[in-house]
Amino acid sequence: MKKILFLLMLCLASTGMLAENEIHNPQPTTQLWYSSPATCWLEAMPLGNSHLGAMEFGGTEWEELQLNEETFWSGSPHSNNSDRSLSRLDEVRKLIFSGQEEKAADIIDKDFIVGPHGMRYLTLGSMKLHFEGHQSATGYYRDLDIATATATTTYKVGDVTYTRTTFASLTDGVIVMNIKADKPGALQFSVGYDCPLKNTIIAKKNQLIATIQNVEQEGIPAGLTANTIIQVETDGKLLTGDNTLSVATSSETTIYISAATNYVNYKDVSADPKKKAQAYLTALKKTLKTPSAYETLLSRHTEAYKKQFDRVRLTLPESNTSLKETPQRVADFAKDGTDQALRATQIVDPANKAFADSLAHAISMIPPMQVGRHNQLQEWLQDADDPRDDHRHISQLYGLYPSNQVSPYSHPELFQAARNTLLQRGDMATGWSLGWKTNFWARMLDGNHAYTIISNMLHLLPNEGQESQHPDGRTFPNLFDAHPPFQIDGNFGVCAGIAEMLMQSHDGALHILPALPDAWKNGEIRGILARGGFVIDTMQWKANQLETVTITSRLGGNLRLRSYTPLTTTHGNTLTPVSKGSNNPNPFYSTADIKTPLISKEITPQLPLLYHVYEYDINTKPGDTITFVRK
Fold first, then answer.
1. Whether the predicted pLDDT of 347 surpasses 70
2. 8 A C-beta contact, residue 48 and residue 54
3. Are the CB atoms for 522 and 35 separated by under 8 Å?
4. What is the dihedral of CA 53, 26, 475, 120, to 10 degrees?
5. Which of 205, 295, 188, 283 is nearest to 241 (CA)?
6. If exposure means fewest CB atoms within 10 Å of the residue's CB, which of 1, 149, 559, 619 is most exposed?
7. How many Cα atoms within 13 Å fall on the side-chain side of residue 296?
8. d(Cα 57, Cα 66) in Å, to the nearest integer?
9. Sequence-ordered list of residues with C-beta below 8 angstroms from that of 617, at least 6 positions apart, any chain
10. How many CA atoms lie within 13 A of 392 on its CB side?
């Protein structure tokens, strides 16, 4: 939840949702919007600042903000290591090397994987607001604006318009909800708290203070305590009950939520959670005394957030469905379908020869990659792959991505074998696996196939438990990835894949637009970073061909630029093509030195069909900015 807001932008961009022309309310560029409140967690809007997370439901009569705190887990400090595994390690190795894998697996299951297997993340409970009489609201609208990381809910009851704006402050560590009525004194509601875990709640002055106990798991005793403080600041009347706060005759009220646990580090849970939680609110005392407290906190948060969010922007043309409600847009999209680690030690610390030597020795013991009898990249040492197996795990393609060991130019037979493996595994999978496949096909320089995988991801699954009605559903209404259940790997993976479709810098050169799909005919990307400290300040393309790219060199050094179109600079400088077979002198672009692959004697290895590329070397100094255009 904490990082989702940063990646949803690219998920939206993959569907053509970043428009060239801004419009208002809703803005297809940055807003997820809905015409009704969330009826389940997977329709709620995520907010987070890395310390606290919240899922806002946007209800009218009842509003819920389901909360999380980053250190609130089940159990207590412990070690997962088995005390029986080391004594049996040599035995397991001998069994594996003698071909008795099943016997080795039995020992591992019995004496290595003994549990506990891991603690679970716990809810912090929910703040619940009750607006009596608001069940008959009209003109309902809610959104999440990922450009500002704010969620807004607005509706009318009678002739009064109510607006709630919520954000998780990046600068002040609290969650803030501002509630307004456009008629004086028309705002009244109660504030409560609910949690499925053992808890106590007290109301004191303008605060609700909840103390929550965690739970044991797998024999690990409970050892964490959390405190949540809900503080209400209002221009109306505030009444304190036993475990609720009530607001009346208000025009504007702001709620501040803070939380913390007794966690200090992985072996110490001796902190005072209430003192930690209160410290965030104490730090705001001076600000909260000012008339513009809410606006000040919002401004601080937005400024800090936009420093991160605005660094990268992907712009694609509007589609016909750009103004539709978010779940409908997802549904319509699905319908229409419109050895680097070793080198790093030498770069960072050339004197660390012993460590580098140990890595080199470990690498020398790894067997070479193999192309099997189905012209596939083998998953196992034995040529045992089934070409009809469409299992979602494709770990044998690590050398393709995220590593740089499978190159279309240096190792074409491995490259083609990787492609065959992908074809054999198929284009459908669960959500997180589709994230991987997006990256794999981008590395295969096949933008249309990567786009197909993204399209497969963007099939709506309305909620968990509805898989039988929506067997291809891979995205929930709030754009969470559906494994199902929700797994953030898919969101992260697709965003990484989009970056790989537009720029790659792992194979000896900075390759611009290596896997641009036909569907992204025109567009622009700003702010993405390549290896070696090269920043693509802006890159524009039209009719699926590069128009212009501006690159800043932060570190200096050789920039080897690879493109499907011939290039020149805006100053008309002549670019010298790279001599065939020459290595890039920039150490950040060292290519992988791999063992000669083993090829099955039953096949004639296949080779890929590749587009012609143009490569240029440009010597740069730190701070140089160069603009290249299509010749």
1. no
2. yes
3. no
4. 0
5. 205
6. 619
7. 11
8. 8
9. 558, 559, 560, 576, 578, 584
10. 12
Query: Tokens 């690590």 identify what position?
Result: 398
Fill in the amino acid letter for 31: Q
Both structure tokens of 567: 């290039």
Amino acid identity of residue 387, one-letter, is P
Q: Report the alpha-carbon distance of residue 13 to residue 15 in Å, rounded.
A: 5
- CA nearest to 456, candidates 434, 423, 424: 434
Place of tokens 């030690």: 345
Residue tagged 């559903």 (tokens): 473
Residues 6+ apart with CB under 8 A from 355: 345, 349
d(CA 304, CA 565): 38
In 462-572, which ranges are E strands?
Answer: 503-504, 510-512, 523-526, 528-530, 534-542, 545-553, 557-563, 567-569
Pair 390, 435: CB distance under 8 Å: no
Which bin fits 498, alpha (ψ -120 to 50), beta or left (φ > 0)? Answer: alpha
Residue 18: the pLDDT is: 33
pLDDT digits (tens, 9 = 90+) for 80-134: 999 999 999 999 999 999 999 999 999 999 999 998 999 999 999 999 999 999 9
Taking only the tens place, the pLDDT of each residue in 268-293 is 999 999 999 999 999 999 999 999 99
Cis peptide before 471 (omega within 30 of 0): no
Q: Which two tokens stand for residue 170?
A: 């990046």
Identify the H or E element spanning 438: helix 431-443
Q: For the residues of 169-227, what is the DSSP string, one character each?
A: -TTTSSEEEEEEESSTT-EEEEEEEE-SSSEEEEEETTEEEEEEE---BTTBPP--EEE
CA distance 559 to 538: 16
